[in-house]
Known about the structure:
Blueprint: E1 3-4, E2 11-12, H1 16-25, H2 33-49, E3 55-59, H3 67-72, E4 76-81, H4 84-92, E5 97-99, H5 105-109, E6 114-120, H6 129-139, E7 140-151, H7 170-179, E8 182-187, E9 194-201, H8 217-226, H9 230-235, H10 238-252, E10 262-266, H11 272-279, E11 283-288, H12 298-310, E12 315-317, H13 323-326, E13 335-341, H14 344-347, E14 352-353, E15 367-368, H15 372-388, E16 389-398, H16 405-418, E17 421-426, E18 431-436
Parallel strand pairs: 3-4, 3-6, 4-5, 6-7, 10-11, 10-13, 11-12, 13-16
Antiparallel strand pairs: 1-2, 7-9, 8-9, 14-15, 16-18, 17-18
Amino acid sequence: MAEISPDGKTTKYNSYEEYVNIQDSRYHSYDCPNCLKINEFNLEVLLKHNKDIKTILDVGCRDSAYFDSAKKKGIVCHGIDISPRSVEYAKSKGRKVIQGDINNLLDFFGSTKFNAIISSHSFEHFLDHNQALKNIRTVLEPNGIFLIRLPNETIISDTKRKAHTRAFIKDELIALLNNNRFKILEEKIEFKSEYFFVCSPIINASINDFPLYTVTKEWEELYTEVLKNRYVKTKYNRKNRLQDKIDYVNKWAPEIKKNNGNVLDIGPGPGEFLEVARFFGNLVKGIDSKIENNQMGNEYVTLSKLMTKRQNIPVQYVGFENMLKDGLPYPDEHFSFINSQGSIEQVFSKHLSGVELVQHKNCFNLTWTFDAATEKSFIKLFSEIKRILCQGGIFLLYANGAKNVQEYITYITKKINETRLNIIKTDGKTLHKIQKV
Length: 437
């Protein structure tokens, strides 16, 4: 039998079948006047925030009685519920409802976008609340409305309510919404025993969305020491770098804002690009050069390692410049987006001549050498990127520049085409947005 934990906060089920049966058994009446009144009020709240709503998805819709009145307002409603009995009843009334689990929402509606989504006294019944919110974000339009209504933490303590998987206190629920990229537009107080929020997805980021994580005294001492270096002190400004990466994503990498992807940064430095990518719900990884080989200098690499450690950004310092020889240490078709901003010169340092490349200061005085060895290296680079990119994935290649930049553009365009990748956007200089198709 399902058991509620001693603190009354969670319910443990012996099997998924037991969980479904318990959810199904909680329904005992349909089209009840009180439930209809609550759901029609939910509809009024949504229309107050957006009078032009035309499509609604109700997750945990039960009998979906209010769909009838919504239809009269010109709104098309769809519902999903785990209870076979409720779905059978709703279908008998001609309502658009399917039987399924919120965790499998994308199997049913993955290619659909809704103006609004409702979870009214259903969220506390879901098994995986983080995954539920990720799925809801995926099928909600960027400017859509999400209404969530659920009982407060005192309700689940009633042992008769084993259908509730978890009890939330208010701060926990707000944190869960924020962590899954929802902002609260309105908090309504209808009953003291429930929480009621109207939310919308966060589609843009600001530097205030990236707080620094707590660190040890040892970390602070190392950080203070590395900032004494003149180059690091001049080069590193966290706020400026974050804003630069936010602008960069908005202009060149809006795909990252769709979330649920795997993102790789080649040469991530202190990791701000990956912080922004993670902020939008992506899984992130970085690969960088070994500290002794990095052309940015030991102090700057030390700073980068300190910051990525502080912000929990996973970066491998294994020598990304070795990719031309050993390949990248990732499986086939793993990443949806790969970024390389200012690292191409180190990967191809053997094919650049002129002054010594130190701290990216002399890039514009370098000259590309285009010979058989260079051709082999570029083919290897693009073939390796193509291997680890998933179908439709993006490679954003941003070089620092060189004396013969026009020759560089002509040359890599040819090599990209030869490896059957497509350039879908360019600044006409050193930035190329490339897609695997």
